[in-house]
Amino acid sequence: MSDKSDAIAVLEAARVETLDAINGIPEEKMSAVAFGTWSVKDVLCHLASWEQYAVPDLQRVSRGHVPQMATFRLEDVDDWNAHLMRSRNLFPLPQVMSEVEESRRQLIDTLNALPDGLFASGQLASMLVNGLAEGERHHADDIREWRKREGI
């Protein structure tokens, strides 16, 4: 396996965890507040948003340009997430599920188009994929814990 195929496999494994974590949740519970002010549907919006944000940045890197995320400060993450969720939390669940699927397809297509060298340890594509996968696994764990607490 190449670094690229390994990275994509890690990302896909995290998505399987998420889909397993949400499987069987009644539709009305998907929009119930579960994590602070967020619902499971909001978490899914969040995952799709980050993937949609990553695609043009990866394309910038493939052109040899500076990615927007290079200017991103970690202390701004909460503000950025809040900004995105102010509009996305109004999306109906079928749209959210469609965006989760479409954002992943676009991300994988973009990753497959990148040069293999960008997936070496310490390179942007590798770091981004690992960050996305780690965040997704964390959210899948949160969903599983919420389901256990709620008896869902």
What does this protein look like?
The chain is mainly α and 152 residues long. It has a single domain, classed as Four Helix Bundle (Hemerythrin (Met), subunit A), CATH 1.20.120.450. Helices cover 70% and strands 3% of the residues. It has six helices and two strands. The chain is globular, with a radius of gyration of 16 Å. The mean pLDDT is 90.
Taking strands numbered 1, 2, ... along the chain, how are they ordered across the largest sheet? Answer: 1-2
H-E string: HHEEHHHH
Largest sheet: number of strands, sense, barrel closure? 2 strands, antiparallel
The CATH superfamily title? dinb family like domain
CATH topology: Four Helix Bundle (Hemerythrin (Met), subunit A)
CA distance, first residue to last residue: 38 Å
Query: What is the residue-mean pLDDT, rounded to a whole number?
Result: 90
The best one-word shape is globular
The total tally of domains equals 1
Keywords:
mainly alpha, 2 strands, 3% strand, 6 helices, two-stranded antiparallel sheet, Four Helix Bundle (Hemerythrin (Met), subunit A), 152 residues
In short, what is this structure?
By secondary structure, the chain is mainly alpha-helical. It is built from six helices and two strands, in the order ααββαααα.
Layout of helices and strands, plus pairs?
Layout: H1 3-22, H2 27-30, E1 33-35, E2 38-39, H3 40-62, H4 77-88, H5 93-113, H6 124-150
Antiparallel strand pairs: 1-2
Helix pairs in contact: 1-6, 3-4, 3-5, 3-6
